[in-house]
Write a structure and sequence with these properties.
The chain has 175 residues and is α+β, with helices and mostly antiparallel strands. The protein contains 6 helices and 5 strands. The protein is elongated.
């Protein structure tokens, strides 16, 4: 049970690294969301993914040491990704993303809405949460990298009012 050789360890490390990279890329391409923003469908996919990749990481080695090697590899890769995200702005932009302008100067950016899989109704709901009754009340609305919508409202005077939504993007991904 506790017998594991160097080649076996190396194989698990390589397999786990490949699975980690594929999952990070897949999750990154799926949109701006965090664990707290997941819909029930997202959670089901996440659970099924974890089950689906388990054998791909450890291969035929179903021993406790094999599982420990896979777990340690995942933790090390996650720590490495966190350090790279902090020290390399290009990597951070790729991994985390960039804010997306949804409204600029009272003009809706329809291409951005479509790209973020948001409907006009979703956007209007976010605006109402910011006490903006219409597009004319908005100078700038941005979908932040954490899934929140920030709004800079037009005011009657020279200044603008900045508000950040408490709701997250998950509801924008309803299908």
């Amino acid at each position: 049970m506790w017998n594991i050789n160097f080649i076996g360890i190396l194989e698990i490390v390589v397999r786990t690294t490949i699975v980690y990279v594929v999952l990070v890329v897949g999750i990154r391409l799926s949109g701006k969301r965090q664990i707290g923003q997941m819909t029930p469908f997202d959670l089901v996919v996440l659970l099924l993914l974890s089950n689906a990749v388990q054998n791909a990481m450890t291969g035929p080695d179903t021993t406790v040491p094999g599982g420990v090697v896979a777990a340690v590899t995942l933790l090390v890769l996650n720590q490495l990704a966190a350090r790279l995200r902090i020290s390399h702005p290009t990597f951070r932009r790729w991994l985390v993303g960039s804010p997306v302008v949804l409204i600029r100067n009272r003009n809706i950016q329809y291409d951005a809405l479509e790209h973020e899989m948001m409907t006009l109704e979703d956007l209007m709901e976010d605006l109402r949460e910011h006490d903006c009754g219409s597009i004319d009340d908005v100078e700038l609305a941005t979908l932040e990298v954490d899934g929140e919508v920030s709004v800079i409202r037009r005011t009657s005077g020279e200044g603008h009012t900045f508000i950040k939504s408490k709701k997250k993007l998950a509801r924008h991904h309803k299908r």
